[in-house]
Amino acid sequence: xxxxxxxxxxxxxxxxxxxxxxPFSLLAGIAAAIGCVIYLLWPTWPGAPVLLEAPEIPVTxxxxxxxxxxxxxxxxxxxHPGPAERIDLAFAWPLLAPAQRDARxxxxxxxxIGAEGPDGSERVFVTIAALGAVVPPAERVRTxxxxxxxxxxxxxxxxxAILPFRAGTPxxxxxxVYLAGNPxxxxxxxxxxxxxxxxxxxxxxxxxxxxxxxxxxRAWLDDWRNVAAGFDRLLxxxxxxxx
Length: 243
What we know:
Elements: H1 3-41, E1 57-61, E2 64-68, E3 82-83, E4 86-93, E5 122-130, H2 137-144, E6 154-155, E7 160-164, E8 174-179, E9 187-191, E10 200-207, E11 210-217, H3 224-238
Parallel strand pairs: 1-3
Antiparallel strand pairs: 1-2, 4-5, 5-11, 6-7, 7-8, 8-9, 9-10, 10-11
């Protein structure tokens, strides 16, 4: 066999080797690319929850920055700084101290809006979430709720008006409570006491695109001006930029 023939045979062998290796190289490249995409798109979970004793942490909801005491955050999975879809908080009333500190002392109040903590204080529950496509609270009072209420309001404590929602509406069994003559200054949607279950109220505020819902016992309406002032102080603590 001549040198030229040997050279051609070697070239053919190298060509076959390259062709055989090509599919494996291609598959390896595709696998690496898929792995990179999976790594980039894989959800990143927060680290270990912040300790209850830690100072306030920055939490952003709907682009709004809040300074939140970890001890007030009810769910451990929410107890981390950074963006959040929503946060659920509990504060002792009227101290406005984080209520979760009481949990270590055996507080079993949970969601019971009228339950007392170990120190005798009650609870105000706060939820902060994105408003999204929901109608803003003040506009709801002007345009949505009037479609479902009775014609005449009853007089409430210290200038409040109580307007029952009609039976058969989405708010059956509740009342719209507001300051007569200036509903946007203070309003709440409240359930009524049923047997031994105390009524509760939802009071809503809006900070840019973040909706804040405060849940409290209906009995507090007897002192609603101090309650509203307390809510102002609480929100000023959570969102100092509000001025």
